[in-house]
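Model: You mentioned two targets. I'll fold them one after the other.
Researcher: Yes, keep them separate.
Model: Target one:
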Amino acid sequence: MGFRSLAQSLLLAASIAAAATTPVFAQQQPAPSQAKPPAAAPAPAPAPAPQQPSAAKPNVEPVTPGQTQPPAPGTVKSNHGAWSVVCDKPAGAATEQCALMQNVIAEDRPEVGLSVVVLKTADRKSKILRVLAPLGVLLPNGLGLNVDGKDIGRAYFVRCFADGCYAEVVLEDELLKTFRSGAQATFIVFQTPEEGIGIPVDLKGFAEGFDALP
């Protein structure tokens, strides 16, 4: 599977692109031995052009999950463990749009947080996984994902807004099954090419919450 992403807003009111144009998670190639980090330049260099995330395995610093972020706009219809079903009716829409959401802030690093959103496309034929990461992450390295110790791959960040940077993929059946049966997902953001920060997301209640989506 390939893990790439689309540029779309986290807002429930945003329209969902056709499933055929939405990419999916891709497995990384086997990691070679870790290369030494490059010597620091005397002055900051211009940001490089976006490129394929490095296959080298970075050091990942785990963080402790803390309180949840403020709830997203909309109405909370139900709670399922660490997840909530949130619905909102965009202006001009005939029906509500609903999403399964969890917002996490690291207890020991309050500047590091994630919003994880799962929703269905308007035609109900595809599922979307959308992640909002904080501003300041290293964009070319993408967003890593690990579930219960299994490396899933990385996705690209393709757009940033005032509230953070977004990655989005099709939630294929295999990954959905992994989320439903898993205990903890760890999303990894990078501050340098070699240093990642692992943000744990509790999967308790995910299966029940997904089944509750209209």
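Model: Target two:
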Amino acid sequence: MENKIEREMEKETENKNIEIGTENIEIGTENIEIGTENIEIGTENIETENKNMPDKKEAGTEIVVKALNEKNVDTIIEGIDIVRTFLMGEVEVRVLRGISVKIRRGEFVAIMGPSGSGKTTLLNQLGLLDTPNSGKVIINGADTSLMFDREKGRFRLHNLGYVFQDYALLPELTASENVYISLMMQGKSKAEYESAAAEIMEAVGLGDRLSQLPSKMSGGQQQRVSIARALAHNPIILFADEPCANLDSKNSKEVLDLFKKFNKELGQTIVMVTHEDWHAEYTDRVIRLKDGMLE
């Protein structure tokens, strides 16, 4: 029965809608659920049992799923000939000029270079926050150039964590709520996301601040909340863009000590942009950029 459905579905174009009961599912971007509803394909109704079809049909999905199960791959990030240009008026500015990098699983890597060298732009490509004009980024064996935008969003939500220099906390939510909001988006139960938030907040030294609003916290505390949020779902990679830029040296050291702790104790892969030379002492390796190229 399932083979018959698949043959019929292949006749449809990638973005054609299939009616399943009262829900419209778009091939290539949505999950296809087949319960006890009738499926109308063309003019033929096909009655199915309580079985689920695979939840994705996009190109590259099987590669992604397979890659996430291959934990023995030493290289967790590979950027291949990445080029990124921006238009400033009528002038095209090439910020990244064909950069190729590899980052090993469990590495703590710093991206450094002078202002305008392309540090944050490279981080955004590797972290799937932006798309290169050419080249590709492979994460955990998955070629992300094969992913649709919706699939990239899901990949980020479940596999990547981010820490920004401005903390990016929602001011109306408590510290705990800021931490577990992404877990709610993943569909975790209330018991699961509240427990995970409490555990990671304790790990960053804020176990007694769960109900506090960001406005009542210091800059260092807010950044620790953002670190907790980034790590709550156990990401395979943590990306940090100038995480200490708005902090004094004492709070910067506390943040970097946390990064080092999670890197050494949990094997957390971390990619961090920084302009401070002393920050590099915490890392395993430094990727240096100059004028959009590797030094």
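Researcher: Noted. Anything on target two?
Model: Confidence is low (pLDDT under 50) at residues 1-72.
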